[in-house]
């Protein structure tokens, strides 16, 4: 400040003719010129630049008599100065000239002020009440006001639109609030402001800095700001953000309609106002999309509107409800699909005077558009559209459908960059939709295979009442390998089986089918549960080795399978069971109490070398058994024990219908969005009437055969089955004779009346009989052949103390009990 105060001040008197008539000593000190040099010369000789209009007459005539000026020093240099002009008046009020006061401008040269004034950045200064003090020309162009129009007026009064956010959904701070905050706190701030300049149809993005201007004492005397147009960078960043959002938001589910809806919702409202996604029916069904030319020239194209979303609250289409749509042969959608190229339609020619107005910083040259774009189509205005981009939906060389991105009642015309964005969004969605289609096809195939391999109907038997449910994992998960089976066995017994192949997809379904077939085959041999699982374990090991590929990949056998095998005998009411890594069944007595199962599950199938433990329980009549897979009780929120307790509570023993109880359990245990498949087999045990079972000890003497025949025939007659007496007499004779000749005592004969008439002969020998073809003159070898011919089934089952030969005769429906 001292430098400025000590600087010389020149006083110059200028006459009406512009000639210098007086010169002070300060003029010599400031410019080097003496009074002799200047008096009588034009004042303009002192200027280093051409004089401003009206100089010197204009100085002092306006409201602000002060201005910056560049003067010539006597030594040839220039001097930045502040000039103040005051009129020199005569007694009659006439202007006799001007008195000019000239002082060196010590803070910055005048050219610097011109640099600020001519800056391409918008500059402004406001007082603490946000009244305009100064703006440069760039700022005036942005706010569409000159400096003279705004000086002294409040910012909110001049620009009320800056008092609200252009994008309130983004929680943008209004620009006026940012100015007021700096004035209040004295802390500078930076922000990006998005707004539409007056007279423009495009929103511009400005990077702005706001800071306080303080006096020598540090008090805030003004607020200054500067900003520059960064629209190109901003909108490019918004496109990248939208693409990033699409990467995480499209294809989250392996569902065709769900993915189409994600595509429809992602660009609304930031990019467009309305999106529709039309797909071929084959794509929705998971089938292969049409190959080659999917439609004949001149024929309308039938698609399905898989998704539609707009800024209107009621315009969203719920997933899972596609509606038919037809595109005329010459429509834009039909041409796009036929040519495989996108089309941009605009309702009117953008810009004025033939110029393309794509928005500040964006491509403003038609050369940036691909050939044929954009198309001016005023007809879309009838639908309320200002622009539409139609993009064919293609993935892996196949046409899946078409997508339309539309703007409704917004002035911005689409740009070449917008077309690129629409095509990128469509390309990402096309791959996701095709992945969902392929998954849907594989899942449908696997589910069909699995349902084919599962029992289509449970067999007719009297030992137990059964009901079952199987539910695959929810959409987005592959079909698993859960399975169950009910297998009638000899002696009116029944095998109850449930298993799970670890993994999902076609492989799991095929593996499940192999295991179910193997279990049925081994069940026909009538092995005890622990022995059956041992054989099944060996089989899985062999299958895994057979499937070992030649390369270095891991085997794809059923090494992760589990199985629970149980056998229930309605005569003894005994349940025998063994588990290969599978959850044990819940056993609930008729009084509602849980019966513990004292057995430990063995290792999963495919481990090999480890034994399986079997246990036997005696069950009251009417006991309830629940056999299930782990998908029913596994949960991320609770452990297996808690879930098993929930299953126990859901098994209401008082429910008379097992079918209804199955539905209750599945509803209670399975969430809407399950990640694994689940199988449930509910069983209520029955017991045969003791009067329907008869057994006798047989002495190991052939002389006892007639006695055995008579006992059997008398029992059959007592049951009212006289028509079965003849066959019963023959098979009892043959089986008892074979046991006496080739077996070992003790020998027992048993008859069981169930849905069939069963004859069993047991002995202590482990040798199994087999059919053979007797020659014409052989005296023996025809016994088992006669049994096989006269009955509907026969077989051998081994026990811990020998074997049992059995055969069964079908009974008429009226004679079954």
Please describe the structure with a list of short key phrases separated by commas or semicolons.
about 800 residues; alpha+beta; five-stranded antiparallel β-sheet; 32 strands; rod-shaped; disordered N terminus
Unreliably modeled segments: 1-5, 57-64, 315-319, 351-365, 551-558, 774-781
Percent of residues in helices comes to 25-40%
Helix/strand-derived category reads: alpha+beta
**Computed Rg:** 49 Å
Helix segment count?
Answer: 20
Q: Count the strands?
A: 32
Distance between the termini: 122 Å
Strand content: 25-35%
Strand order of the largest sheet: 13-12-11-17-16-14-15
Main pleated-sheet profile: 7 strands, mixed
Any idea what the shape is?
rod-shaped
Care to describe what's here?
The protein is of the alpha+beta class. Helices cover 28% and strands 28% of the residues.
Write the layout of secondary structure elements.
Elements: H1 2-6, E1 9-14, E2 20-23, H2 25-31, H3 35-38, E3 66-72, E4 78-89, E5 95-104, H4 110-117, E6 122-126, E7 132-135, H5 137-143, H6 147-150, H7 155-158, H8 175-185, E8 189-195, E9 204-214, E10 220-229, H9 231-249, H10 256-265, E11 274-279, H11 281-284, E12 301-310, E13 323-327, H12 332-339, E14 343-346, E15 375-376, E16 385-395, E17 398-408, H13 416-453, E18 464-471, E19 480-488, E20 494-504, H14 506-524, H15 529-546, E21 561-569, E22 574-580, E23 586-588, E24 594-595, E25 614-618, E26 624-628, H16 640-650, H17 658-669, E27 678-685, E28 693-698, H18 705-718, H19 725-742, E29 747-753, E30 756-763, H20 783-790, E31 793-799, E32 802-810
Parallel strand pairs: 14-15
Antiparallel strand pairs: 1-2, 1-5, 3-4, 4-5, 6-7, 6-10, 8-9, 9-10, 11-12, 11-17, 12-13, 14-16, 16-17, 18-27, 19-20, 20-21, 21-22, 22-25, 23-24, 23-26, 26-27, 28-29, 29-30, 30-32, 31-32
Helix pairs in contact: 9-13, 10-13, 13-14, 14-15, 16-17, 18-19, 19-20
């Amino acid at each position: 400040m001292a430098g400025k105060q000590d600087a010389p001040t020149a006083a110059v008197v200028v006459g009406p003719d512009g000639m210098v008539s007086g010169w002070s000593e300060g003029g010599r000190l400031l410019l080097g010129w003496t009074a002799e040099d200047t008096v009588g010369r034009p004042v303009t000789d002192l200027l280093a630049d051409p004089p401003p209009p009206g100089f010197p007459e204009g100085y002092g005539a306006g409201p602000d008599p002060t201005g910056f000026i560049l003067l010539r020093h006597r030594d040839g240099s220039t001097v930045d100065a502040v000039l103040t002009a005051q009129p020199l008046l005569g007694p009659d009020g006439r202007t006799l000239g001007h008195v000019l006061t000239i002082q060196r401008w010590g803070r910055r040269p005048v050219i610097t002020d011109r640099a600020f004034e001519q800056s391409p950045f918008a500059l402004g200064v406001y007082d603490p009440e946000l009244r305009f003090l100064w703006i440069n020309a760039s700022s005036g162009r942005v706010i569409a006001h000159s400096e003279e129009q705004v000086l002294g007026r409040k910012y909110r009064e001049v620009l009320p639109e800056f008092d609200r956010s252009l994008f309130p959904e983004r929680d943008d701070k209004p620009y006026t609030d940012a100015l007021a905050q700096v004035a209040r706190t004295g802390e500078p701030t930076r922000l990006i402001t998005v707004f539409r300049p007056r007279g423009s149809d495009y929103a511009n993005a400005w990077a702005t800095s706001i800071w306080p201007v303080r006096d020598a004492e540090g008090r805030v005397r003004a607020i200054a700001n500067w900003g520059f147009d960064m629209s190109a960078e901003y909108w490019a960043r918004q496109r990248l953000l939208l693409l990033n959002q699409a990467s995480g938001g499209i294809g989250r589910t392996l569902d065709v309609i769900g993915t189409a809806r994600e595509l429809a919702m992602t660009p609304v409202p930031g990019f467009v106002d309305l999106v529709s996604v039309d797909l071929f029916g084959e794509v929705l069904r998971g089938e292969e999309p049409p190959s080659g030319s999917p439609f004949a020239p001149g024929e309308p194209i039938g698609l399905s509107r898989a998704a539609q979303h707009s800024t209107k609250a009621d315009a969203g289409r719920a997933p899972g409800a596609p509606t038919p749509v037809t595109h005329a042969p010459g429509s834009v959608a039909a041409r796009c699909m036929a040519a495989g190229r996108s089309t941009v339609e605009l309702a009117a020619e953008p810009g004025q005077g033939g110029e393309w107005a794509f928005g500040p910083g964006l491509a403003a040259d038609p050369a940036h558009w691909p050939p044929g774009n954009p198309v001016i189509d005023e007809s879309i205005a009838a639908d309320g559209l200002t622009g539409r981009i139609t993009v064919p939906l293609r993935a892996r060389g196949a046409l899946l459908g078409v997508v339309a991105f539309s703007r409704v009642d917004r002035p911005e015309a689409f740009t070449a960059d917008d077309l690129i964005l629409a095509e990128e969004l469509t390309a990402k969605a096309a791959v996701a939709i095709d992945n969902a289609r392929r998954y849907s096809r594989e899942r449908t195939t696997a589910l069909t295979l699995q349902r084919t391999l599962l029992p289509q109907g449970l067999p007719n038997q009297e030992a137990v009442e059964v009901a079952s449910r199987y539910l695959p994992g929810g959409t987005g998960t592959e079909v698993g390998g859960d399975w169950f089976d009910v297998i009638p066995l000899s002696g009116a017994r029944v095998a109850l089986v449930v298993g799970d192949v670890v993994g999902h997809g076609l492989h799991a379904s095929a593996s499940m089918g192999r295991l179910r077939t193997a279990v049925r085959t081994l069940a026909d041999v009538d092995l005890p549960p622990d022995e059956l699982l041992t054989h099944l374990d060996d089989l899985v090991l062999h299958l895994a080795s057979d499937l070992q590929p030649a390369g270095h990949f891991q085997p794809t056998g059923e090494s992760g399978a589990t199985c629970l095998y149980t056998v229930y005998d309605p005569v003894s009411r005994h349940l025998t069971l063994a588990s290969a890594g599978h959850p044990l069944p819940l056993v609930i007595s008729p009084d509602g109490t849980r019966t513990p199962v004292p057995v430990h599950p063995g290792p999963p199938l495919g481990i090999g070398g480890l034994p399986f433990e079997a246990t036997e329980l005696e069950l009251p009549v009417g006991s309830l058994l629940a056999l299930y897979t782990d998908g029913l009780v596994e949960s991320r929120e609770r452990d297996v024990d808690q879930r098993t307790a929930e299953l126990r509570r859901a098994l209401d023993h008082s429910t008379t219908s097992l079918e209804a109880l199955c539905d209750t359990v599945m509803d209670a245990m399975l969430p809407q969005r399950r990640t694994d498949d689940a199988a449930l087999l509910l069983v209520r045990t029955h017991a045969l009437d003791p009067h329907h079972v008869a057994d006798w000890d047989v002495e190991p003497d052939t002389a006892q055969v007639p006695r055995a025949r008579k006992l059997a025939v008398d029992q059959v007659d007592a049951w009212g089955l006289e028509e079965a007496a003849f066959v019963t007499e023959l098979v009892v004779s043959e089986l008892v004779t074979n046991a006496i000749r080739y077996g070992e005592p003790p020998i027992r004969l048993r008859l069981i009346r169930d849905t069939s008439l069963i004859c069993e002969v047991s002995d202590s020998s482990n040798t199994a009989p087999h059919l053979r073809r007797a020659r014409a003159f052989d005296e023996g070898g025809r016994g088992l052949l006669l049994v096989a011919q006269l009955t509907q089934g026969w077989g051998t089952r081994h026990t811990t103390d020998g074997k049992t030969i059995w055969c069964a005769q079908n009974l008429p429906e009226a004679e079954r009990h």
